[in-house]
Specification:
The complex is a heterodimer of chains A (244) and B (125). Chain A is an all-alpha fold. Chain A has helices at 5-14, 16-36, 45-60, 64-76, 78-84, 86-96, 100-124, 129-135, 142-151, 156-180, 186-208, 210-241. Chain B is 80% helix and 0% strand. Classes of the chains: A mainly alpha (244), B mainly alpha (125). At the A-B interface, α2, α3, α4, α5 and α6 of A face α1, α2, α3, α4 and α6 of B.
Chain lengths: 244, 125
C-alpha cells in the first residue's frame, strides 16, 4: 500500500531532516543567485535564504521551534567555527604584528562607536530598555552577542536577529560606504567591515580580497572580545545616567 | 588514517570550545566559551609554530561557509515579528545608521592610525 502525501508530510514535518535540508537548499539558492549576479554585494545569500525560509515556514504554518529542531545542527557549528577563527588570526599574526598600535586604536574606537551609536539612537527614538540592551552588542558575532545580551537584560533571540541584520547590512553596503569616504586600503576596509558586521561581513570581505578577508576575520575576533568587555560597562553607565 | 585525522581536528575544535565553556562558567568571565576556545587554539598554534595542513583544511571549509551558519538564527526574525513591528522605526534607523557610522569611524581611524605609525616609523632618526 502506498502512503498518502498527508502521512508523509506528517512524518517529514516532525523530523529534523526536512528543515535541515530546507536550510541548505535555501542557502544554496541564495549563493547561486549571488554568483549569478556577478557577486554583487547587495545580492546577499543569507538575506535570500532567510526570506525563503520565513516564507515557507509561514506558508506551511510551521513554528520556529519545529524548524530549529532541524536547523540546530547548522546553528551548532557556530561554536566550532568561532574556535576555528584562531587559524586566520594565527596566519595573519606575523603580518599584522607591526600594525598592532593602529589595530588596537581602531578596535577601541570602532567597538565603542558600535555600542554607543546603536544604544543612543534606539534610546532617542524611544525604544524600551530591553530592546536597547538587545541592540547594544549587535556588532559582535552571534554567540558572543547573545551571551552579552543575556547578561545585560536584553532578549538573546532578538539580539541574534539584530546581529544578523547588522551583518547583512555591512556585507551589502560596507565596501561602497568606505569607498565614498576614501578608505580604499583592503586591510582598513576588511578591518572596518569585520568589526561592524562580524562573520557575514567577513564572508563578504573574503570575496573582495584575501587581505580584506584576513583583516575582517581578525577584527571580528577582536571585536567579539572587546564588545564582551566594553558593552556591559557602557550599557551600565548609560543606564545610570540616561534612563536609570 | 586520513578520515580519523578529520575527526581528530573536529575533536580539537570541540575540546577547545568545551574548555572555554567550562573556564568561563567556572570563573564567571564575561567572555563567551567559544571565544576563549579560540584563544586556547591560538595559543596552541603559537606553541606549535605552524598550522597543521588538516587543521587548515577543516577550518578553511568551516569558515568558507560561515554565512550559512547564521541562517537558522536569522530565521528567528519570525519569532519577534511583533516586537520588531512595534519598534521597527527605531530599530531600522539604529541598525542602518549604527552600521554605517561604525564602518566609517573604524575605517577612517585605521587609515589615519596606520599613516601616523608608518610616518613616525620612517621619520624616526
Amino acid at each position: 500500500m502506498i502512503a498518502s502525501p498527508r502521512e508523509i508530510w506528517v512524518y517529514l514535518a516532525a523530523s529534523p531532516l526536512l528543515h535541515l535540508t530546507l536550510t541548505l537548499v535555501a542557502y544554496l539558492l541564495g549563493d547561486y543567485l549571488y554568483h549569478k549576479s556577478g557577486e554583487k554585494a547587495v545580492v546577499n545569500p543569507v538575506l535570500i535564504a532567510i526570506a525563503i525560509l520565513v516564507t515557507v515556514l509561514l506558508a506551511t504554518g510551521t513554528s520556529y521551534a519545529t524548524y530549529f529542531e532541524g536547523a540546530q545542527f547548522v546553528h551548532f557549528l557556530l561554536g566550532p567555527a568561532t574556535v576555528a577563527l584562531a587559524v586566520p588570526l594565527y596566519r595573519q599574526f606575523e603580518r599584522v604584528r607591526h600594525s598592532v598600535p593602529a589595530l588596537l586604536v581602531s578596535l577601541v574606537a570602532g567597538s565603542v562607536t558600535a555600542v554607543l551609536s546603536a544604544t543612543l539612537i534606539t534610546w532617542v527614538l524611544g525604544a524600551p530598555t530591553n530592546v536597547i540592551a538587545s541592540i547594544a552588542p549587535k556588532s559582535a558575532t552571534t554567540p558572543i552577542a547573545m551571551g552579552i545580551a543575556e547578561q545585560i537584560g536584553g532578549l538573546p533571540s532578538l539580539t541574534a536577529v539584530l546581529v544578523i541584520l547588522t551583518g547583512i547590512l555591512g556585507a551589502m553596503f560596507g565596501t561602497t560606504v568606505l569607498t565614498w569616504v576614501g578608505v580604499r586600503d583592503p586591510a582598513a576596509q576588511g578591518f572596518a567591515i569585520g568589526l561592524a558586521s562580524h562573520g557575514i561581513g567577513t564572508a563578504r570581505a573574503l570575496q573582495v580580497s584575501e587581505a580584506a578577508g584576513a583583516f575582517s576575520a581578525l577584527a571580528m575576533g577582536l571585536n567579539g572580545l572587546a564588545t564582551s568587555l566594553l558593552a556591559p560597562l557602557l550599557v551600565h553607565w548609560l543606564q545610570r545616567w540616561l534612563w536609570g | 588514517m586520513q578520515r580519523n585525522r578529520i575527526i581528530l581536528i573536529f575533536t580539537i575544535l570541540l575540546v577547545c570550545q568545551l574548555i572555554g565553556e567550562v573556564i568561563t562558567r567556572l570563573f564567571h568571565w564575561p567572555v563567551p566559551g567559544p571565544v576563549l576556545g579560540m584563544v586556547i587554539l591560538f595559543c596552541g598554534l603559537l606553541l606549535r609554530g605552524h598550522v597543521p595542513e588538516e587543521l587548515g583544511a577543516v577550518t578553511g571549509g568551516l569558515l568558507q561557509n560561515l554565512s550559512l551558519l547564521f541562517v537558522p538564527a536569522g530565521v528567528g526574525v519570525m519569532l519577534h515579528a511583533q516586537l520588531l513591528a512595534e519598534n521597527w522605526a527605531a530599530l531600522s534607523v539604529a541598525l542602518v545608521l549604527s552600521a554605517a557610522i561604525t564602518i566609517v569611524v573604524t575605517g577612517l581611524v585605521m587609515t589615519w592610525a596606520t599613516r601616523l605609525t608608518e610616518h613616525s616609523g620612517t621619520e624616526a632618526p
